[in-house]
Design brief:
By secondary structure, the protein is α+β, with helices and mostly antiparallel strands. The protein contains 4 helices and 5 strands. It has one domain (10-158): Dynein light chain 2a, cytoplasmic (Beta-Lactamase), CATH 3.30.450.30.
Length: 160
């Protein structure tokens, strides 16, 4: 069964960005990113000026997909948390409600234990936001196709 498309409004984006910003601060991380399963970057925080966040988001989604394949071969339900340790940077990846990927890049300024603890709490907060979004999408009258929009409305939107 196909996963319902994630539709987000400004209210939810602000809530999500607040969780991402708080995780960056509380985990003493370098970068925090929230990515969908297709590799689309949803939110980011931290030292991203000299980082290819789009490339990292796509590769992260690919890594999660590959790890899901490994889980199937091992007859596991999946791996909700992944950890990569490098010489200068470490990465924790956490699946949120099997719909989004929360990634934390950190260095020796913090410990993996603290990052993991804060990551799980942020994941729980994001799961609550996703559940509220899902309820909103399932309300009567919610329409992903925007049937009431006319060609004239679209033309007016894009005219200077």
């Amino acid at each position: 069964m196909a996963e319902q498309q994630l539709v987000m409004y400004e209210e939810e984006f602000v809530q999500i960005q607040a969780v991402v910003d708080r995780l960056l601060r509380d985990a003493m991380a370098k970068v925090v990113m929230l990515v969908d399963m297709n590799g689309q970057l949803i939110a980011q925080s931290g030292e991203t000026d000299h980082l290819d966040v789009v490339g990292l988001a796509v590769l992260t989604a690919g890594n999660v997909a590959a790890t899901g394949g490994i889980a199937r071969i091992l007859r596991e339900n999946g791996f909700a948390i992944q950890f990569h340790e490098g010489e200068k940077a470490n990465i924790y990846t956490f699946l949120v409600s099997n719909r989004l990927i929360l990634e934390v890049v950190f260095d020796a300024r913090t410990s993996p234990g603290l990052v993991r603890l804060r990551l799980k709490k942020a994941g729980e907060a994001l799961a609550v936001i996703l559940e509220a979004l899902s309820r909103k999408q399932n309300q009567p009258g919610f329409d992903l196709h925007f049937e009431g929009i006319t060609d004239e409305d679209i033309d007016n939107l894009f005219n200077d």
